[in-house]
Amino acid sequence: MRISQKVHIDRPPADVFKLIGDATRHPTFLAGATTFKPVTEQTQGVGARFRVLMKIGSVEVGGIVEINRWEDDVVIEWTAVQGVRQTGRWLLQPVDGGTELTFELDYDIGGGPVGWLVERIAARTLARNLWASLLAARRIVEAQE
Amino acid sequence: MDDNKVEVRTIEPPDAGALVRGAAADFEARDPEYIRNMLPLMWLLTTVYFRAEVRGMDRIPEEGPVLFVSNHSGGNMTPDSIVFTLAFNSYFGVERPLYSLAHALVTSWPVLGDMAKKWGIITAGHETAKAAFDRGGSVLVYPGGDVEVHRPYSARHEIRFDGRKGFLRLAKEAGVPIVPIVADGGHDTYLPLTDGRSIAKALRLDKLARLKVLPVSLALPWGINVGDFFGHLPLPAKIRMEVLDPINVEARFGDDYDAAYRYVTGRMQESLTALAAERVLPPFL
Fold first, then answer.
1. Domains of chain A
2. pTM of the model
3. CATH number, position B258
4. Is B86 within 8 Å of A59 when comparing Cβ atoms?
5. 8 Å CB contact of A59 and B38
6. Number of domains in chain B
7. What's the pLDDT band for B25 if we cut at 50, 70, 90?
8. CA-to-CA distance for A133 and A54, rounded, in angstroms?
9. Of A15, A115, A106, nearest to B35 (Cα)?
10. In a domain, B282, yes or no
11. Cis omega (within 30 of 0) on the bond before B221?
């Protein structure tokens, strides 16, 4: 299952990356996350690991993800090392002097036909949270002078 | 070669060591990929059918073995284990081993017993639980056992551990913290009338099968349900669950198991009473 959403931000990628690339600021815009914290001393660049949980239905779901691709002002990509199987990425593309910020998430919860159904039910909550996160990120970045 | 193995096993004396070695097979039987694939179904049951609320998962120590001590309700179809197993595996990932202690009748069922073992359900016992801790696993125990899970409906908001203190000695000897889990709502999934303790005693079920009760309930699809041996269809009552702060038995109570017992059950009762106050009628809303 893949969820992909994007938003246009009226600031250059370098400004957007200051927010997206700073783990300490993620709790300020990541909607629906009940936990977001580094589990390694390193919090930037390839190899940094984070524990991320989101409330989906009755329970908090997630795991530990590791950054496996990091290009300043361009992309941050991660993959799960524990918990729900997932990969995801923040993509920053310069457009018209601003930035097109894309969030992509691929996840696989297994479980055959029931899992297929649950992935789609969960996608509603996920998509709502990710959209809220993108809007929050835009608001925060554009508020800067 | 296989024949030889069988022969060697049959001449082993039935001491505690053999019990632990036998249980080792059960530890290996826990299958994280099987659990991963079952979680979506558990999620549907928990979220859609029981509309569970789980609070305080962040109070669980993030690493190392823990002894989860919980109350449970709902007869042999207790929703509490489904909800907690899902919550734990979603929160920490299937990679963190959780073993649940169950009555030997559960693990010895022909087909269901094997499924239970894949979930990490092991036959209850002091040595087995310690072996689980030694392997870095956490253990979930329901000290109240059959006496609590089959208690009558009038006692539905009651922690009933029946004076059993073995879990305290286990935590102290293994040096692991106790994390209490409190659940309310399970007894609204059917209508238990009596736990039939005196009948069970008269029939010597305790000596025959370690059963202290012979419960009688109204339950689907049976109507009058004696014994609940074949389970029943639980009604979709709402389940509320809370994880309490960890308790270090040795540091706080030393050898005074009576005081520790009063403290743990008292803290759990406080939480259960608070959860029960949130209940709305009918409990299926």
1. 2-142 (3.30.530.20)
2. 0.90
3. 3.40.1130
4. yes
5. no
6. 1
7. low
8. 13
9. A115
10. no
11. yes
